Amino acid sequence: SKRMAAGVGGSGGSGSGAGTECGPWLAVAPGLSDVQTVRAALLTAGWLDRSKHRRQQKMVRDDGSVAVALPVVHGVSPAQLASQGFAHVIEVEGPTEKPTGPLGGDNSPAARLHHAVAPVLTAAEVNPVDARLLLADLPRRWERHGDLILLSKTAFASDQWREHVTPLLWTAVANALRATKIARKADVDPGLRRESRVVLLHGDDGWVRHVDNGVIYTYDATRCMFSTGNITEKVRVAQLGQEGEVVVDLYAGIGYFTLPYLVKALVQHVYACEWNPHAADALRRNLEVNGVSERCTVFEGDNAELAPRDVADRVNLGLIPTSERGWAVGCAALKQRSGGWLHVHDNVEVPKEEAQAAAFARRGTAVTAALEGLVQKAHGGEWSVTLHHAERVKSYAPRVFHVVFDIEVRPLDAS
């Protein structure tokens, strides 16, 4: 099946017909309302390519999750899209393109890459047969993060490429794709910190900058994880938070959810816990660049030891495959007199014989029952623990879904 990297975006306008240059694709998580919202925004901006040969498509990303790809008109740059809050431009011919040649228009990203790499192979005196095989193996999809191109873990990694990978090659790739940095994906560190193993191939450092929903994120792609599939949840938490609230974010990372709470929801204060020092560094930078550092306290280290108690109206537990290690910490962070909300991230496996909604409800009920005992242990007394909603964020693996449970926790004797 076709695979595409994660992101958001789209574009509008009449678009161009077959045989003309095509713009990039942008991907949106598959929630119908989210796709319609983004599509409408791009249509209003005149950036949605509405030509008959480029249609909205379902795509499978490298992590196995599903996205909806929206075509962008030619001439709209990644910088323009980012300035309007659309991030992660996917510069690749889509599933329904009808290009004039094997690589699409002469100025398509794939065509530029081909034309840039071919002379490098010629200068290296690669025999014509091998050169044709290598050019046919050039990547056709990648992610753009600011001025960094993030290649799939298989790009330029085959045995045939190894002896031809040189600084000159990476310079040609960067120039062709109009970037200053090139990096390649790798499997995520399986440890609890889930550190990035992305490899920088070209450029001085891995620091990138982009905008999601009007929030600026900077981070070192070689050191920190950035989940492009979480955009809908970042938008959602900005609507959940309320002015005057105090939030505890137990797995803050670079500020995936901390920043929307502060920048968009305008909560009073966020206590952000993060134990990866590289992510904590990026988080502090992001707080500064978004102008909200005075309303956030960063605890760098294990949240079980550092997280505040009895302060929160709302606790975010944004860790998968499970945030269970932080459930007791989250309960203790809630205000003892009034309680609040827990947003519990979890991976839920859906058996073939069970409906998705039923599987989510079953797991949510189990989480709620566990939390009832934990909050009683943390604060004493009797508590009401109620599951209000299970939000599907994305597909994580076949029949495994990243879900957020919205759970209200209140003391029964609250005045």
Describe the structure.
The chain is α/β, with parallel strands linked by helices and 415 residues long. Helix content is 29%, strand content 23%. It is built from 12 helices and 16 strands. A hairpin with a 2-residue loop joins strand 8 and strand 9. The termini are far apart. The model is unreliable at 1-20 and 91-105 (pLDDT under 50).
Short description:
With 415 residues, this protein is of the alpha/beta class. It contains twelve helices and 16 strands. The protein is elongated, with a radius of gyration of 23 Å.
What secondary-structure arrangement, pairings included, does this model have?
Elements: E1 25-28, H1 32-45, E2 57-60, E3 66-71, H2 78-83, H3 109-123, H4 128-136, E4 143-145, E5 148-151, H5 159-162, H6 167-176, E6 181-184, E7 199-202, E8 207-212, E9 215-220, H7 231-240, E10 246-249, H8 258-263, E11 269-274, H9 277-289, E12 296-300, H10 303-306, E13 314-317, H11 327-333, E14 340-349, H12 356-379, E15 383-397, E16 400-411
Parallel strand pairs: 5-6, 10-11, 10-13, 11-12, 13-14
Antiparallel strand pairs: 1-3, 2-3, 4-5, 6-7, 8-9, 14-16, 15-16
Strands side by side in the biggest sheet = 12-11-10-13-14-16-15
User: What is the N-to-C order of secondary-structure elements (H for helix, E for strand)?
Assistant: EHEEHHHEEHHEEEEHEHEHEHEHEHEE
- Unreliable stretches, pLDDT < 50, 5 or more residues? 1-20, 91-105
Radius of gyration: 23 Å
- Give the averaged pLDDT, no decimals: 82
The gross shape turns out to be elongated
The description of the largest β-sheet is:
7 strands, mixed
Number of strands: 16
Residues in helix, %? 25-40%
Q: Which structural class best describes the helix and strand composition?
A: alpha/beta
Helix count from the secondary structure assignment = 12
The span between the termini is 56 Å
Strand content: 15-25%
